[in-house]
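Async update (no meeting this week)

Hi team, since we skipped the sync, here's where things stand on the single-chain job. The sequence we agreed to prioritize is pasted below, unchanged from the tracker. I ran it this morning and attached the output directly underneath so nobody has to dig for it. Comments welcome in thread, and please keep replies under the output.
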Amino acid sequence: MPHFHWIIDGLFVSTVALIWFMLGYQSLLFFLGHVYYRRTRHAAKKLSPISDANLPCISVMVPCHNEGRVIDHTIIALQKLDYPADKIEFLMINDGSTDNTAEVIRGFTSDPRVRLLEVPKLLSARGKSGALNYALTQARHPLIAIYDADNLPEPGAIRPLAEQIVRYPKLAAAVGMYRAWNRRRALITRFVNIEGIGFQWMVQAGRWMLMRLTMLPGTNYVIQKSIVEKLGGWDEQALTEDSEMTVRLYLAGYNVQLVPTSVSWEQEPESLRVWFKQRRRWVRGFNYVLKKHSTGLLRAKPRRIAFEILSSHLLYYFFFLAVVISDSLLILCMAKLININVPGPYSLVWILAYATFVLQLVIALSCEPGEDSLVNILLTILMYFTYTQLWIPVVAAAFYDDFIIHRAIKWAKTERYQVGTV
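Output:
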């Protein structure tokens, strides 16, 4: 069966090329991200702080749906923000909660900065975008800051974001870092912590250095209210409203910048079930963005940014195909069901690819104090064979939902846990 051997050999070579292309590009982003890390650390020591009188007023918006377990800790963290009290308000958006969320929030309204917003019943519990759009009509200030209800921003989180908008008023938004405060609670949270650090210092920082592109996260960012209104608010059909808003911002000619000196701590899923549900929603959100904006991105300029946004949303499927084909060929070869007839030092190529994967993540961990520990390094070594493979059923399930059975889009909030000490 000569044709069969050609197909196997072709799949093998294509997979190796795809994996090395992704690794090579990630290596470029990793290098540029590390440059950005060093540059921002150096710049932070030299920049003169902007006086309170010149800081803009900010409306902090926190969507809340059944957040009774965590919302008091979030409000306390917000109250500790280093920002003039007369220039900030906290809009706590009770979005159809059926627990004690509203009662907990009312306990803080003696602070004039804290406002409880009750989403009207007919508009409530439709997802984060709907809650944000309602609060947008109630916000008093020209800058909007977004935090999820499980977030514990550091006292210095919001000021550098606002200062960046003051220094560069053409920026649509300034984005901070997010970290996992429960990273040591479970094995899955340790993996997610490593993944998050790698993504922010390699992808987010690297893409900003390469092409002035940063994706909005779901939390810890400041955005100009007038621009959000001009774009028509957040898309209420989007499961990943941050990603969808990012695409519209860049299509409209705006920029978003990463500001690493801003840090907020968030909860991560502590069980595989919750992690799978959250990640499945993410991939379905990216599918929605692809279906909505792919045509516009193909025509958008500058081409490099449009191509990068499009390819970043397709990355799940590039990675999915490469890993599935690679794993399948490995298993079939080990079972002696097939043979690879392509000459070359492929064992060495695979080892180098794996070493590159580990090295990049370990160096990214070194950007955060205490994260390049022996435990994290050992977990990084295991990550490709364990955590990374979990993305295969996630992507497959999301693809099945959106392109096979066309399951209706429905927002599902990530489960919260009792807050511990950060």
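Quick observations from my side:
The beta strands are 58-64, 88-94, 114-118, 143-146, 152-153, 171-180, 221-224, 255-266.
The longest strand covers residues 255-266.
Reply here if anything looks off.
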